[in-house]
Amino acid sequence: MDIEFNLFGEKELMAVFEALPERMQKNVLSAAVRGGASVISKAAKRNLKTNNSIRTGLLHKSITIKVKRYTRQGVIYAAVGANRSTVGTLPNGRRLVPANYAHLVEKGTRNSRAEPFMRPALDANRKRVFEQITARARKGMAREIRKLRKTTSI
């Protein structure tokens, strides 16, 4: 008994597999990493509130996420921290840039006690960050595969 097997659409299928890594990195993984970073960002903002570290609200407002992608190395990372573009003014007219003093709040100084908000946010949420990245990556991969199927008509 002979079994014969024919694969139709081989070229289209190979086109999907070749396009997948670039699209995954660009669309799916960047979004997944951003989702994981948002967990840390939200926790850091919550920590600022619970520490009673909010004086003007600018530090709380300045906490942002920046996702960077290095295509040659295939590395995607997210930076969570105080954004330099958030600027305010004190009642006495002095300019206030939260990015300049965020580390002083986190670590403290000789004259002021430390009120960490960023490190505890990361430490307490490592598992949630990983779960968020995994869940978003799964959803995104399924979505990208569906898109590729439509464009290549498999």
Question: Can you walk through the features of this model?
Answer:
The chain has one domain. It contains 5 helices and 4 strands, in the order ααββββααα. The chain has a two-stranded antiparallel sheet. Strand 3 and strand 4 form a beta hairpin. Helix 1 crosses helix 4 and helix 1 packs antiparallel against helix 5.
Order of helices and strands: HHEEEEHHH
- In quaternary terms, these chains amount to single chain
Uncertain segments: 1-8
**How would you sum up the global shape?**
elongated
How large is the share of residues in beta strands? Answer: 5-15%
Concise account of the structure shown:
It contains five helices and four strands. By secondary structure, the chain is α+β, with helices and mostly antiparallel strands.
Give the topology, please.
Layout: H1 10-50, H2 58-62, E1 63-70, E2 75-82, E3 88-89, E4 95-96, H3 98-107, H4 118-124, H5 126-152
Antiparallel strand pairs: 1-2, 3-4
Helix pairs in contact: 1-4, 1-5
